[in-house]
């Protein structure tokens, strides 16, 4: 296999011209994200089985030839545990096409949804990869020989094991299905769902709904939280800082609950980080004053907790038992079929809690392969 370390734009163009003739590419990224909101790209790895390239984004300003490969619908791309890689691609405004996640593929083979890359490689090849460089500084130059070897292995073995995973998916048939099931198509669909989710623009006006303690607040307090959470999100992006580096979530909750009139009063509230007050106290007070000018008719509705809804616990248990039974009969892992969050999304839609009926497209049981396999049978749970 030919291996290259690509450090200039002309070499990148030439390498990508060779790679664009491929039907399959294994891809990975290395990045640093310890004190930033956005990932800092340190390396791109790509391999087609005959050619392996490490592409250096620190020395190359224009990576568009690589992004064109990523968006080429005629080339299948395989990545492993691609969630954070997608954030790198999102930052470059490049939505991958025809991409599949090998971790998701392995989940359909009964390995759960958190199988690591090294474990997958060892499963198929008995090779034990050295993962000691996983937390290294990928922005520092020059890269060491161990870093380069580590980065190459991330795509060199992926391109080798991918056909084996596909073969096993094609051979596996679900025990409780009378008709053949295309598990590879399911893996592609699940991967695409992950891509679409990452590339869906964040509605900053709705972020307050994700704050864990928001259900404790009244409408006025929720309105203040809505403004503060949006402000924190926008500031994190502007300054490229993690959200908690701007203000911690617990501080936001305490501020809106107590509505302090000045920074001194804010500093004396239990649950507030004093550094948050010192660095952002005045800014938070300004946001609260802005929120107080809103008409009451614009305040968010009080949030209903799903687990307090009449009948929730019994229905959740019944659905969980239904999923467990289906997983056992179909020889699929419960993890890949349904998470607690997915069950709760379905129940929120069923009860129409917090107007959940308006977001049916986010309920996984009501679409795609889950609907085909068991979604329509969930009615049996409610008939009990």
Entry keywords:
384 residues, alpha/beta, DNA polymerase, domain 1, 6-stranded mixed sheet, 51% helix
CATH superfamily membership of the largest domain:
Ribonuclease H-like superfamily/Ribonuclease H
Overall shape: it is flat
E-strand count: 6
Q: Roughly how many Å is the radius of gyration? A: 24 Å
Give the terminus-to-terminus CA distance: 60 Å
Series of secondary-structure elements, N-terminal to C-terminal: EHEEEHEHEHHHHHHHHHHHHHH
**pLDDT under 50 segments (min length 5)?**
none
Overall structural domain count? 3
**What is the average of the pLDDT values?**
93
Report the total helices: 17
| CATH architecture verdict of the largest domain | 2-Layer Sandwich
In words, what does this structure look like?
By secondary structure, the chain is α/β, with parallel strands linked by helices. The chain folds into 3 domains: 2-199, Nucleotidyltransferase, domain 5, CATH 3.30.420.10; 204-298, DNA polymerase, domain 1 (Orthogonal Bundle), CATH 1.10.150.80; 306-383, Orthogonal Bundle (DNA polymerase, domain 1). The protein is built from 17 helices and 6 strands. It has helices at residues 9-19, 64-70, 83-91, 102-111, 117-125, 145-171, 183-199, 219-239, 243-246, 249-258, 263-267, 274-292, 312-330, 334-337, 340-351, 368-373, 379-383, and strands at 2-6, 24-32, 40-47, 51-55, 76-79, 99-101. It has a 6-stranded mixed sheet, with helices on both faces. β2 (24-32) and β3 form a beta hairpin. The longest helix has 27 residues, at 145-171. It is flat, with a radius of gyration of 24 Å. The chain starts with a strand and ends with a helix. The mean pLDDT is 93.
């Amino acid at each position: 296999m030919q291996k290259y370390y690509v450090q200039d734009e002309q070499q990148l163009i030439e390498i990508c011209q060779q790679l664009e003739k491929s039907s399959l590419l294994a891809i990975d990224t290395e990045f640093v994200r310890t004190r930033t909101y956005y990932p800092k790209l340190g390396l791109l790895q790509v391999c087609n089985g005959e050619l392996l390239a490490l592409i250096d984004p620190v020395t190359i300003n224009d990576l568009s030839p690589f992004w064109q490969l990523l968006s080429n619908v005629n080339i299948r791309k395989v990545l492993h545990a691609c969630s954070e890689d997608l954030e790198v691609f999102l930052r470059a405004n490049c939505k991958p096409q025809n991409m599949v996640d090998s971790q998701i593929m392995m989940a359909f083979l009964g390995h759960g949804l958190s199988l690591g890359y090294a474990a997958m490689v060892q499963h198929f090849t008995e090779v034990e990869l050295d993962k000691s460089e996983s937390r290294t500084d990928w922005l520092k130059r020059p890269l060491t020989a161990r870093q380069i070897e580590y980065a190459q292995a991330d795509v060199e073995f992926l391109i080798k094991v991918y056909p084996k995973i596909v073969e096993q998916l094609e051979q596996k048939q679900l025990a409780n299905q009378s008709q053949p099931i295309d598990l590879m198509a399911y893996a592609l669909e699940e991967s695409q769902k992950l891509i679409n989710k990452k590339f869906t623009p964040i509605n900053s006006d709705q972020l307050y709904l994700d704050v864990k303690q928001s259900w404790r607040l009244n409408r006025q307090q929720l309105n203040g939280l809505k403004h503060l959470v949006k402000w924190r999100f926008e500031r994190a992006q502007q300054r490229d800082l993690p959200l908690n580096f701007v203000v911690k979530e617990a501080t936001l909750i305490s501020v809106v609950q107590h509505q302090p009139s000045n920074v001194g009063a804010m500093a004396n509230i239990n649950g507030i980080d004093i550094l948050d007050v010192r660095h952002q106290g005045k800014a938070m007070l300004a946001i609260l004053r802005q929120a107080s000018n809103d008409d009451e008719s614009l305040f968010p509705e009080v949030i209903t907790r799903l687990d307090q809804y009449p009948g929730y616990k019994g229905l959740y248990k019944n659905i969980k038992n239904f999923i467990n039974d289906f997983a056992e009969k179909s020889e699929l892992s419960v993890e890949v079929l349904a998470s607690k969050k997915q069950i709760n999304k379905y129940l929120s839609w069923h009860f129409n809690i917090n107007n959940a009926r308006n977001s049916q497209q986010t309920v996984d049981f009501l679409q795609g392969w889950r609907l085909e396999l068991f979604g329509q049978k969930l009615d049996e749970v409610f008939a009990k």
